[in-house]
Amino acid sequence: MNNAEQIQSLDAGGQFVEQPLAWEKNGYLFLTREIWDQIFDRHDPQEVARILRAYGSLEPGDGRNILSKMPTGAGANRGYKVSLSGLQE
Questions:
Q1: Which UniProt keywords are present, listed alphabetically (predicted)?
Q2: 52 Cα distance to chain centroid
Q3: Residue ranges making up the domain that contains 54
Q4: H-only helix segments in the chain
Q5: Does residue 72 belong to any structural domain of this protein?
Q6: 11 found inside a domain
Q7: What percent of the chain is helix, strand and coil (3-state, nearest 5)?
Q8: Between 78 and which of 45, 67, 72, 84 could a Cys-Cys bridge form, CB atoms 3.0 to 4.6 Å apart?
């Protein structure tokens, strides 16, 4: 299965996805800590987050929190907020 099919769009008109791996809204991809850790299991997930943040691809949360607030409808309160445009550059 293509993983893109497992991303739940939270923008208007997005189709429902049962058990999504990630959520997309307003040009950002939101991932829970558990999914993030699975993706980067061979690397230090926190170090990957710091690298992506340095390149402007990861939007940090408030204060010193690397995790952002997840949008309404996502599967958690906080997670990693990745800019889709930053990944495509």
A1: Plasmid
A2: 12
A3: 25-86
A4: 33-39, 45-54, 84-88
A5: yes
A6: no
A7: 30, 25, 45
A8: 67
